[in-house]
Amino acid sequence: MRAEFPESMLNQYPEDAINSKTVHKCAEKGDPIAIEVFRYTGQKLGEALANFVMFSSPEAILLFGGVIKAGDFILKPAKLHMERNLFLYLEIR
Known about the structure:
Elements: H1 20-28, H2 32-56, H3 66-69, H4 72-84
Helix pairs in contact: 1-2, 2-4
């Protein structure tokens, strides 16, 4: 992605220095690539959570650590994609 988006703040860092904290700093400053990284990760997390909910029917899902520190950058797309991927259960009588 570096070559495709030379204006990204992430290009200021060596590849081995890019981690979730670096991406979060750039996302907070409005870097569109960093925001897209979190959106995509949130999408995959939401899809995985939907699968988990469908086979286990948990009463709650607890997330903690770095995921929570990323805040809405990752949680909003995770919630959106989890809800999109849950099947509606309708009881037919």
